[in-house]
Amino acid sequence: MTHSSAPGKIILFGEHAVVYGRPALAVPVTQVHADVEVSDSARSGIWIEAPAVGLQAELNALAPDHPLAAVINNLFFRSHVSPFPNLEIRITSTIPVASGLGSGAAVTVALTRALASHLDGSMTDEELNAFAYEIEKIHHGTPSGIDNTVVTYARPVYFVKDQSIETFLVGQPFTIVIADTGIPAPTKESVADVRKLFESDEKYWDNVFDEMADISFAARRVIEEGWIEMLGALLDENHALLQHLTVSSPELDALVEAARRAGALGAKLSGGGRGGNMIALVEPESAETVAASLKEAGARNTIITQIT
Ligand code: MEV
Prior knowledge:
Elements: E1 2-13, E2 24-40, E3 46-50, E4 55-58, H1 67-78, E5 87-93, H2 103-118, H3 125-140, H4 146-153, E6 157-159, E7 166-167, E8 174-180, H5 187-200, H6 202-225, H7 231-244, H8 250-261, E9 266-270, E10 277-282, H9 287-296, E11 301-307
Parallel strand pairs: 3-5
Antiparallel strand pairs: 1-2, 2-5, 2-6, 3-4, 6-7, 8-10, 8-11, 9-10
Helix pairs in contact: 1-2, 1-3, 2-3, 2-4, 3-4, 5-6, 6-7, 8-9
The protein binds (R)-mevalonate (MEV).
């Protein structure tokens, strides 16, 4: 049997703008993860069990564009595996689906790694990342590639589409509270809506994306230098621009406000928006208080994570 695990992720700065070539910062979240076990099967076929999404099926029963079928078929074709072996695949994940925490990318990366090692094949991170990006296109339409990149490398990433991967260093660890609105919001939809908005006035929205890029650029410096006291204002500014881009929601705004009232240094939505998760920068000693206030304000779940 082979096993592989991949973390969740949060975007600190630059979501949506990153689809338009601007930089974004994302970090892995190891408190949540996708896990995949692959073992040889006594019955014929490739049997997939994914209790989190209520899936129990043989590979051929899945639509060819189902992301799990796409991983298995593409990987086996790419590796010239023929005929397909008989396998049992069990996928478990603690990453909420459609919440901005990169659940799709984490399942893809964990599944690909587990299958590749079960076949005694090895893939470099670069190969795996390129492969996972192709699968992300099925999940998200026109993704930037940031989710698969941060999940594959499991390191803080300063990401610019179509450019080589840059990781960044954290000068001084800082604490983030992540809170889930509990509202699933597929990234594909918010990305498609932003595309329509962008096409309605490209010059105007290009300026907005430039402002987001300035924030990401500044945030990288601030994080690398360890000037954490300056980070809160950047989160707040980024959230205001995301509201303007119409990807926030009353529930996300309520959580962002609740975090600020409870003493967070800054807060914003994270990921595709409209639902899913928000993040708040907190002093370590007030993390529990802010998390409790977020729960009172309607958060389904909270995670306290240290960015190091
Ligand atoms: C999703 O985690 C981040 C978005 O910027 C989409 C993408 O980069 O592909 C909203």
